[in-house]
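User: Show me a protein chain along with its predicted structure.
Assistant: Here is one chain, sequence first, then structure tokens.
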Amino acid sequence: MIRFYFHPTPNPVKVALFLEEAGLPYETIPVDTSKGEQHRPAFRAINPNGKVPAIVDTDGPGGRQARVFDSSAILLYLGDKTGKLMGTPQDRPELLSWLFFIASGLGPFSGQAVHFQFVAPEGLDYARNRYRREAERHYKVLDDHLAGRDFIVGDGYTIADISAWGWLDRAARVLKGEADPFRAFPNIARWFRAIEARPAVARARAVGKDHVFKREVDEETRRALFPSNYAAA
């Protein structure tokens, strides 16, 4: 059984999509990051970095319980565990390259673009422009790569597609103000429509819907989500 620590944000939703695609049995454990539940000792014992997603596999290697944190690590772990959505052995170099392109580039720059456009105080125009333009540059790299391709790696759907989908699903926020955020990226638009048509996507979007997560952005939320902005107590 997979215990899945979840909040409805891009990185956890990637893991939800894998679990649904692979048909793995799992238990969803909500972690309300706006309330600071990710900083509780019990969760820090699973992810010392205090972020979601994280999983505990009660039937890990050698039959022992195993924790895995970070969405890319989880996708690789579950892909190797199940033998699903990993492409062919010949695809492995490309799979790792694109997975880490998303993990170190497209994802973080998208997240910072959202932060500085929606959360940060006014007067930070350099940072706002920097992250927005870098997000757009990463979109262009992926769009160029997808020309003439149905999937990011090889001839089939893999964890690279799942990982990219998690962040590209938030394109309207990353590219704030664009009526059609994929207008300049037609290959991503075509690819994204195909991923969206998969039945598992609707199931992944439904994960956690039975739990009421805090939505208000108040001082508690800001301290929970951005603790490094505050002096240590």
